[in-house]
């Protein structure tokens, strides 16, 4: 342990549990953020406990806000790194959001097409009623022009 990372216990420092309570972020998430480079390395007491200064709460608030806005942890890390390097990340933030909005527009367009097809299938099924099949003839006899966008979204999430 270097003296650079040791903090005097007489100085008001926040232990990891205090940071977790104050921020609403779990201890394991805090450790993950530290390992991922989203948080600087905290100081350590003589007994090895992590101790943070109050600035960590501002950083965690920033991370939570960025996540709510849809930024990935990798994007947030890059934004923080740009700022730490003396560069304003605001242009990059706007570009990320522009790109994200274009993706959302395309997904919404796709979802509207799928909803229209699904509604038409249900209307046909309401007229048909029961249809014999291996499991359910209604499903087995239906062909959709577009695949289910929800399936593609869930596959992307799992990757």
Summary keywords:
159 residues, 61% helix, elongated, 3-stranded antiparallel beta sheet, mainly alpha, disordered N terminus, 3 strands
Report the top-level CATH class of the largest domain.
Answer: Mainly Alpha
Give me the Rg, rounded: 25 Å
Uncertain segments are: 1-10
The CATH architecture designation of the largest domain is: Orthogonal Bundle
The percent range for helix content is 55-70%
* Count of separate DSSP helical elements: 7
Q: What topology, given as strand order, has the largest sheet?
A: 1-3-2
Biggest sheet, in brief? Answer: 3 strands, antiparallel
Q: Name the structural class.
A: mainly alpha
Overall domain count: 2
The tally of strands reads: 3
> What's the helix-strand series?
EHHEEHHHHH
The coarse silhouette is elongated
Oligomeric form: single chain
Percentage beta strand: under 5%
Would you give the CATH topology of the largest domain? Answer: Multidrug-efflux Transporter Regulator, Chain: A, Domain 2
Ends distance? 38 Å
Mean pLDDT, as a whole number? 86
Plain-language structure description:
9% of the residues are buried. This protein is mainly alpha-helical and 159 residues long. It is 61% helix and 4% strand. The protein starts with 13 loop residues before the first strand and ends with a helix. Residues 1-10 have low confidence and may be disordered. The chain is elongated, with a radius of gyration of 25 Å. The chain has a 3-stranded antiparallel β-sheet with strand order 1-3-2. The protein folds into 2 domains: 3-87, Orthogonal Bundle (Multidrug-efflux Transporter Regulator, Chain: A, Domain 2); 91-158.
């Amino acid at each position: 342990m270097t003296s650079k990372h040791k903090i005097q216990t007489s100085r008001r420092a926040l232990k990891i549990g205090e940071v977790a309570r104050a921020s609403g972020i779990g201890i394991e998430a805090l450790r993950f953020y530290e390992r991922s480079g989203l948080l600087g390395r905290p100081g350590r007491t003589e007994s090895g406990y992590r101790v943070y200064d109050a600035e960590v709460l501002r950083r965690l608030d920033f991370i939570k806000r960025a996540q709510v806005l849809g930024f990935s942890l990798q994007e947030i890390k890059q934004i923080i790194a740009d700022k730490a390097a003396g560069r304003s990340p605001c242009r990059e933030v706007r570009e990320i959001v522009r790109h994200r909005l274009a993706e959302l527009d395309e997904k919404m367009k796709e979802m509207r097409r799928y909803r229209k097809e699904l509604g038409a299938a249900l209307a046909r099924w309401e007229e048909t009623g029961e249809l014999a099949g291996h499991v359910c003839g209604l499903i087995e006899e239906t062909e959709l022009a577009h695949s289910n966008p929800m399936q593609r979204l869930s596959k992307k999430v799992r990757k």
